[in-house]
């Protein structure tokens, strides 16, 4: 286990591989742990980092730092401490909101961004997220698969206040519009069976820039990186391998998910 002291708090992270840096940010349920498969695949060509946000996993529980803005600051502090420059961001759920916020304020160092099951309308999130315990959420969203339950074992370490802190964030549409307008290559990925977040609306998708794209994985739920690991990881590595500045539509779409593009 690797840790770093940031702003007088212990932050846990893991790192694999060598090459251009990729930062993985977990969601409301679980920790860095469910990124292991994606990190292993990515690490053959990139240097993959995954960290636990404030209040999750083995990172310090500091209630005053649970807002999305404070989580974004954590990412900035981490990059500065590790001497990391230009990055690709891969966020999921809460991590996707943090990635959006970071990309909107640090566009000069974000080469591309992949947002998985990102809520663009917080009012449409299933209320279970803010009422059930982290353990109950993990059990509900794991689909009963033992491998998924293992990947979500850190859910019990979650401070529920860290989930609640994002409940009233209202600037998500503005953050998304900012990232979209600044033409940061952005890949939106949704699980068709996701009962927690749901998919972006047609209206939201209609304004995507020419460098952005949305893909719906029909067999995936809230955790596409676990439910459909092979497909998700292939999509991830293809996206990361794109030359800088190329739009996501330049991807050579694989046949097994070509028909699932929305």
Summarize the structure.
The chain has helices spanning 36-42, 68-82, 94-105, 128-131, 134-141, 146-151, 160-164, 172-181, 202-206, 224-227, 229-241, 255-258; strands spanning 2-6, 9-16, 20-25, 46-51, 87-92, 110-116, 186-191, 212-217. The chain is of the alpha/beta class.
Structure description:
35% of the residues lie in helices and 19% in strands. The chain has 262 residues and is of the alpha/beta class. It has an 8-stranded mixed beta sheet with strand order 1-2-4-3-5-6-7-8, sandwiched between helices. Strand 1 and strand 2 (9-16) form a beta hairpin. Helix 1 (36-42) packs across helix 11 (229-241) and helix 3 crosses helix 8 (172-181). The model is unreliable at 252-262 (pLDDT under 50).
